[in-house]
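User: What would this chain look like folded?
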Amino acid sequence: MTTITYSLKEIDSIAKKLLESTNEIIFLFYGEMGVGKTTLIKAIAKQLGVEHETSSPTFSLVNEYEGNGKSIFHFDFYRLENEEEALDMGLEDYLSGNHIICIEWPEKIATFLPENCKKVHLEATDDKQRIITF
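Assistant: Here's the prediction, encoded as structure tokens.
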């Protein structure tokens, strides 16, 4: 397990280190609201070759990006009311595919998560510093 304290200006190098740390394709992001989960996922998408603007899928639940010939799916389950909603949107198909998956609020779908996931924990130390553990 790796723990790093970082500031926003270091986010791209943190994303690169995270990607280099694993062969997993499913990333689970844990942390309080506003801690920087979406910001880190944007940096990961950039590292994976996504050239257009990325955003939080809070209202749509999932956004798809293309980077370096691979699909990247960014889920935000904050507004998910129950696990059935995730099944209705085809979550199992996404999880069984060969694409990069980034999930915010994975605790809302814990029943469906495979074992081969990279868990990423974010914590705010103050307004400018974050601690990431992966």
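The CA atoms of residues 32 and 123 lie 7 Å apart. If you want, I can go into more detail on any region.
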